[in-house]
């Protein structure tokens, strides 16, 4: 089991403290699991206080023993109740904050009201954008975890060629592939930050199902098994000649890569093959342009302009009013990290940011083709982390 080194945690805390000082915040109180893991190396039930200056304090309710084993934070103390946080801070020579940052994008309203009582003399400020900016630029340690996740993806994609047979249902095929991923070390959980978005491993859908939109912030949706989880694989039996969308998230040591490939039994129509090739061209153009200083809006407009040039303006990113207005997004500990390669997003890219680029085109009653790979931004453009051929995987049609 890998534990985050102290040097890594110290560097992350120092970056956040620089931003706290620049925004005149006295400290930040971290509660959400992804941020907690990033800054403390544990997801045990805790409150992590990071002062503007000095060492952080990890206050843990359950399990204290595991927090002490997993985290390299030096000051780890028991916490009976959130109401004890001010007392613990004072006991460790931390002044009570007058302006304290909280993760207000994800903090439940009842918890927020509770912290207003606990810190009755303080202003509560949303520290989430600051945290997400710090997390957006990955270290070499994080990139190594992302590359391990990519190897899980490569192994799972290879299995697709053996497991895809005519007549197998989407959900059965998904289960077989997910077993391969799990056996290769996939942690199983995929974290979203966006409210009410969730996912189980990813999407495997064939034919027209892959062009069916859903509530999810994604170019594809799928019917799912019921309206209770209205996305992803159904009981549809896969037939020869229809595109099979394999859009999965692979996770190692908490770190996510996002990857899409298209497969087909026997072959696909020329129309779909041409559309897929166009998406590969768009991916490559975005990757070349994804250098430090480029904005998410510029990269989206580049992709959308090429889609218009190739004649896919009405199909790019979905169908009709359900089309998405992004061509990529940051990934890391969560699937929807900064930066967003999206219309109107002005955040400039920085070296070390990790992005998933996903140009896809949908055709009603036919299906979806396209590509997705995860890249790290460098001075020379985006360099790929995910592995394997981008070409459509044509599998010899065979019956079960």
Q: How is this structure best described in words?
A:
This protein is an alpha+beta fold and 400 residues long. It has two domains: 6-135, 3-Layer(aba) Sandwich (Creatine Amidinohydrolase, Chain A, domain 1); 137-395, Creatinase/methionine aminopeptidase superfamily (Creatine Amidinohydrolase). Helix content is 32%, strand content 22%. It contains ten helices and 17 strands. Strands 4-3-2-1-5-6 form a six-stranded mixed β-sheet, with helices on both faces. A five-stranded antiparallel β-sheet has the order 11-10-12-15-16. The protein has a four-stranded mixed β-sheet with strand order 7-8-9-17. Strand 2 (45-51) and strand 3 (57-62) form a beta hairpin. Helix 9 runs antiparallel to helix 10 (296-309). The longest helix is centred in the middle third of the chain and has 24 residues, at 140-163. It is elongated. It starts with 5 loop residues before the first helix and ends in a 5-residue tail after the last strand. The relative contact order is 0.12.
What is the CATH architecture annotation of the largest domain?
A: Alpha-Beta Complex
CATH topology name of the largest domain = Creatine Amidinohydrolase
User: Measured on Cα atoms, how large is the radius of gyration?
Assistant: 22 Å
Overall tally of domains: 2
The shape is elongated
What is the spatial order of strands in the main beta sheet?
4-3-2-1-5-6
Topology order in helix (H) and strand (E) letters: HEHEEHEHEHEHHHEEEHHEEEEEEEE
Structural class: alpha+beta
Question: Helix count?
Answer: 10
Helix content: 25-40%
Q: What is the CATH domain class of the largest domain?
A: Alpha Beta
């Amino acid at each position: 089991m890998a534990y985050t080194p102290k040097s890594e945690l110290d560097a992350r805390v120092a970056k956040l403290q620089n931003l706290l000082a620049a925004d005149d915040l006295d400290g930040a109180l971290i509660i959400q699991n992804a941020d907690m893991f990033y800054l403390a190396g544990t997801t045990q039930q805790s409150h992590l206080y990071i002062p503007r200056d000095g060492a952080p304090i990890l206050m843990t309710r359950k399990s204290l023993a595991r927090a002490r084993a997993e985290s390299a934070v030096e000051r780890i103390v028991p916490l009976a109740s959130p109401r004890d946080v001010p007392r613990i801070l004072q006991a460790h020579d931390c002044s009570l904050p007058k302006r304290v940052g909280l993760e207000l994008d994800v903090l439940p309203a009842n918890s927020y009201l509770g912290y207003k009582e606990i810190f009755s003399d303080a202003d509560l400020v949303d520290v989430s954008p600051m945290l997400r900016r710090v997390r957006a630029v990955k270290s070499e340690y994080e990139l190594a975890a992302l590359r391990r996740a990519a190897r899980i993806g490569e192994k799972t994609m290879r299995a697709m060629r053996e497991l895809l047979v005519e007549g197998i249902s989407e959900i059965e095929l998904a289960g077989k592939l997910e077993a391969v991923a799990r056996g290769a070390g996939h942690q199983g959980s995929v974290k979203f930050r966006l409210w009410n978005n969730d996912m189980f491993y990813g999407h495997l859908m064939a034919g027209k199902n892959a062009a069916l939109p859903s509530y999810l912030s994604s170019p594809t949706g799928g019917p799912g098994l019921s309206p209770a989880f209205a996305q992803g694989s159904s009981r549809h039996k896969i037939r020869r000649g229809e595109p099979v969308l394999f859009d999965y998230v692979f996770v190692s040591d908490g770190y996510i890569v996002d990857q899409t490939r298209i497969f087909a039994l026997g072959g696909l129509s020329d129309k779909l093959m041409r559309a897929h090739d166009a998406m590969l061209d768009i991916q490559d153009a975005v990757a070349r342009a994804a250098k430090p200083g480029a904005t998410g809006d510029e990269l989206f407009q580049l992709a959308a302009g090429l889609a218009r040039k190739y004649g896919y303006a009405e199909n790019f990113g979905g169908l009709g009013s359900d089309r998405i207005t992004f061509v990529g997004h940051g990934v890391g500990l969560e699937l929807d990290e900064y930066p967003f390669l999206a219309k109107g997003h002005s955040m400039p890219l920085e070296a070390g940011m990790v992005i998933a680029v996903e140009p896809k085109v949908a055709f009603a009653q036919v299906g979806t083709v396209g590509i997705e790979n995860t890249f790290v931004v460098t001075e020379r453009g985006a360099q790929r982390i995910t592995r394997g051929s981008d070409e459509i995987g044509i599998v010899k049609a065979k019956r079960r």
